[in-house]
Amino acid sequence: MPFLPINKQEMEARGWAAVDFIIVTGDSYVDHPSFGVAIISRVLEAKGYHIAILPQPDYKNADYSDFKQFGVPRLGFMVTSGNIDSMVANYTAAKRKRSDDAYTAGGISGKRPDRAVVVYSRIIKKIFPGSFLVIGGLEASLRRFAHYDYWSNTVLKSILFDSGADVLVYGMGEAQIVDIAKMLQHSKNIKKLHQINGICYSIPVNEYAPESLVELPSYEKVSENKKDYAVAARKALEEADPIRGRKIIQRHGDSFLVQNPPGKPLTQSQMDYIYSLPYERYYHPSYESAGGVPAVSEVEFSIIHNRGCFGACNFCSLAFHQGSVITVRSLESIVNEAINITANPRFKGYIHDVGGPTANFRLPSCDKQKKSGLCKNKKCLVPVICSRLKVSHTEYLNILDKISSLPKVKKVFIRSGIRFDYLMADKNKAFFHALVRRHVSGQLKVAPEHCVSQVLDKMGKPHIDVYKKFQDEFYKITKKVNKEQYLVPYLISSHPGSTIKDAIALSLFLMKEGIRPEQVQDFYPTPGTISTAMFYTGLDPYTLNKVYVPKTQKEKDAQRALLQYYEPKNLPVITESLRSAGREDLIPVFRKAAIRTAKKRNQRTSGKKGMKKNI
User: Quick one: how far is CA 385 from the chain centroid?
Assistant: First the structure.
């Protein structure tokens, strides 16, 4: 199916005088189901609506000609920052401007504004004051309540108020958007939309009719009192469950933000339908001259088989956006997508990923979750795995086998995150053996994140002994099948709860295990997570006990340097850290590691035999 129009000429080429909705996005236009704009636009198109996409409009042009080119849409505007928060897209965790952008044609940075949803929305309201405006996507979803903004180091209002939008859609949004479109077809009375689940809206305080719901501390309170902020963060997440979640209100001055209960997860048939829509699975041809959109390379030959995650890592926004209920596609739907991929002339025989938020989840966490939702303030996998947890990889393995058997398919890889604690809980080791034998493309990315128990507890991650068992089993099977492949552990430095002594302990663990991380992620306080609430308040939202938070750039640099202990350039910072922690006894150990690296590099540059890279 042809790409949807991204300019007036393409709209007129379809014989349209106007469109029903204009979707404004901070990303370049990619018509692939890994991109939210592609899904929403194709779902609406399938319902008979005329949709135009306005990717990365020029927001600096004083006449706003990009925004005006389609004219006034019949039903309204939809605005999203794109696949990720615009501030995360534009800045590193150290608040430095990024030099590239994987979601922009040519990888060029600076094409989207900071706080894109607010910027685009205000322009639309300025030039089309009477038009309906709905905001959605990750940026809007995670900023739906008053929230701490790391980049300005302040608490901001709900993005609904700052943007001036009429409605905010949170979560994945397909069902809500269709309901909104249907209602707007019959009435422009926006209040009629207020009955839709999975949306937020505002009402004046004097129009609010008391009812049974959850009230969060107001914007004013959470701005002034960190304990109130921590309580609000916990309560908001508690009600994010689609089965037991209740309506929430939060006062902002003379208005209430109202969040209706979460929308119901899609059924399997609904998921299958959405992924059967006629996506081009590629970037718009207008980007060819710029070299295309870099993000496409990771997803073009990948398949999403599930949504949701009950893993509940505190630093992750999945539970707050996608939800904790696992929704899956059928075997037939997944295989059909794989068959379509094999017909692509660019396909070389390799399916890059069959995954999702957590690749190896296909079942609900337990029977209770299906009826009553997730247990309140309890996690399925940590600190120990719940006895009720349903664990099986049989269905997932069958999917991988079916795709692998297709003509033209040489290999099927798994590049999405594998939840290793869930994998280890499966008594049937068939999937583990198949994973190592057939589905690792040299490296398997996993996320132990740290090794110190109290830090892992603050992260919501399993203790390191679970990872150790997984690691040992992985390499045991790897050796048995005579392969050279490695684990690539994701690690987070400077997470709330991590002291410099904890970073030293992690460094020693990495040294002992022979792990030399080339990349380390400093904790990034993004809106809507429990970890970000800890970072801002210095409190654990579940206990309200104090939490140590590394905040100075000096300490963050030190914790990062310790994780890359082998780098000679890090030795001065590491030495200072060891002295401040009273661990001068370890200075020779770290000096030796740095000297060893320097010698090996010198050997390579002098043409002598080098050493096999330790990943």
Answer: 24
Give CA–CA dist 463/563, Å, rounded. 18
1, β-bridge pairs: none
23, 46, 55, 157, 321 from 42: Cα distances, Å: 11, 6, 16, 32, 21
From residue 203, alpha-carbon distances to 124, 251, 259, 436 in Å are 21, 10, 11, 55
Which of 227, 329, 331 minimizes the C-alpha distance to 547? 227
What letter represents residue 591's amino acid? R
Q: Quick check: helix, strand or coil at residue 325?
A: coil
Burial level of 488, CB count in 10 A (0-12/13-18/19+)? Answer: middle
Contact 494, 458 (CB under 8 A): no
Q: Is-contact 257 161, C-beta < 8 A? A: yes
> What is the reported pLDDT for 614?
43
Q: Which of 537, 557, 576 is the C-terminal boundary of a domain? A: 537
Question: Based on the structure, what is the number of domains in the chain?
Answer: 2
Q: Domain check: are 239 and 277 in the same one?
A: no
**Which residues, other chains included, contact 34 with Cβ-Cβ below 8 Å and sequence gap of 6+?**
83, 299, 302, 304
Instruction: Identify each DSSP E strand in 505-609 by its residue range.
Output: 521-522
Q: Within 10 A of 260 (CB to CB), how many other CB atoms are there?
A: 21
Enumerate residues 6+ apart whose C-beta is below 8 A from 96.
none
- Cβ contact 262:323 at 8 Å: yes
The reported pLDDT for the residue numbered 607 is 61
pLDDT at residue 56, as a whole number: 98
Assign residue 473 a region: left if phi > 0, alpha if psi is -120 to 50, beta otherwise?
A: alpha
Domain boundary among the residues 483, 504, 537 is at 537
Residue 159 lies in a domain: yes
| DSSP E strand boundaries for 109-247 | 133-135, 147-149, 154-156, 167-169, 199-204, 214-216
Radius of gyration for the alpha carbons in the chain, expressed in angstroms and rounded? 25
Whether the CB-CB separation of 425 and 467 falls below 8 Å is answered with no
Residue ranges of the chain with per-residue pLDDT less than 70: 1, 606-615
Structural domain including 424 reads: 269-285+293-537
Same domain flag for 247 and 127: yes
Task: Please report whether residue 542 resides in a domain.
Answer: no
Q: Give 543: exposed, middle or buried? Use CB within 10 Å, 0-12, 13-18, 19+.
A: exposed
For the stretch 244-268, pLDDT in tens is 999 999 999 999 999 999 999 999 9
Whether 190 and 300 share a structural domain: no
Question: Tokens in use for 534?
Answer: 């800890």
pLDDT in tens, 509-545: 999 999 999 888 999 999 999 999 999 999 999 999 9
**How far is 535 from 357, CA to CA, in rounded Å?**
24
